[in-house]
């Protein structure tokens, strides 16, 4: 019992002395819906087709071992072979745990909650997505120098989620559904305030 209480006090003490910070962040995301080989070829031929952006705020508790929640407005775009774009606006809430490896370099991972605000597919009326709130996972690497930071991460949606086509405006579509799970590479720049 004494050891458990001592452990609890040590944990509480380390949290109370943990460094905390907050700031703003923004960046670009490359949404790779579809076949990975098609996406890689498409990046080389048309690098702007699947590029979106994100802006938001973050908090950080800890230094060597840290917890970093973020709240982001994200706009994604996916271009398809039929020259139509699928666009999605959402709020993202990554809850990341990370560790500083050495110097300014850190690695992190954690769940990411997404709340879908709106979806749009050129010339096609979409029904509501199956679930407005979904869960994904992120992992990545970052560098912090002073108050500036840059990180590169990968995000994949874990919850199945589709939007159904309602009216195709005389456009022929095979499936009648589109997968709305994120599958993206994210480049972010941050500034601690």
How would you characterize the overall build of this protein?
The structure is a single chain. The chain has 193 residues and is mainly β. The chain has one domain: Porin. 13% of the residues lie in helices and 63% in strands. The protein has helices at residues 2-16, 36-45, and strands at 20-31, 51-62, 65-79, 85-102, 105-121, 125-129, 133-145, 148-157, 162-167, 177-179, 183-192. The protein has an eight-stranded antiparallel β-barrel with strand order 1-2-3-4-5-7-8-11. It has a three-stranded antiparallel sheet with strand order 6-9-10, with no helix packed on it. A hairpin with a 5-residue loop joins strand 3 and strand 4. The longest helix has 15 residues, at 2-16. Residues 34-39 have low confidence and may be disordered.
Summarize the structure.
The protein has 2 helices and 11 strands; from the N terminus they run αβαββββββββββ.
Q: Could you give the topology of this structure?
A:
Layout: H1 2-16, E1 20-31, H2 36-45, E2 51-62, E3 65-79, E4 85-102, E5 105-121, E6 125-129, E7 133-145, E8 148-157, E9 162-167, E10 177-179, E11 183-192
Antiparallel strand pairs: 1-2, 1-11, 2-3, 3-4, 4-5, 5-7, 6-9, 7-8, 8-11, 9-10
Keywords:
193 residues, mainly beta, Porin
- Output the helix-strand order: HEHEEEEEEEEEE
Shape: elongated
Number of strands: 11
Low-confidence stretches: 34-39
Largest sheet: 8 strands, antiparallel, barrel
Which bin fits the share of residues in helices? 10-25%
């Amino acid at each position: 019992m004494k050891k458990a209480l001592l452990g609890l006090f040590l944990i509480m003490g380390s949290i109370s002395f943990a460094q905390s910070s907050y700031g703003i962040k923004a960046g670009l995301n490359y949404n790779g819906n579809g076949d990975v080989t098609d996406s890689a070829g498409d990046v080389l031929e048309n690098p702007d087709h699947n590029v979106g952006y994100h802006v938001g705020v973050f908090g950080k508790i800890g230094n060597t071992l840290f917890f970093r929640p973020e709240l982001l407005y994200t706009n994604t775009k996916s271009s398809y072979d039929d020259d139509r774009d699928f666009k999605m606006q959402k709020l993202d809430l990554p809850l990341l745990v990370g560790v500083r490896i050495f110097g300014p370099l850190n690695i992190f991972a954690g769940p990411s909650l997404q709340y879908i605000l709106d979806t749009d597919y050129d010339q096609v009326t979409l029904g509501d997505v199956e679930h407005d709130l979904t869960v994904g996972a992120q992992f990545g690497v970052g560098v912090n120098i002073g108050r500036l930071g840059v990180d590169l991460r990968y995000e994949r949606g874990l919850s199945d989620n589709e939007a159904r086509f309602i009216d195709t405006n005389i456009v022929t579509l095979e499936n009648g559904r589109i997968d709305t799970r994120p599958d993206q590479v994210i480049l972010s720049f941050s500034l601690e305030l």
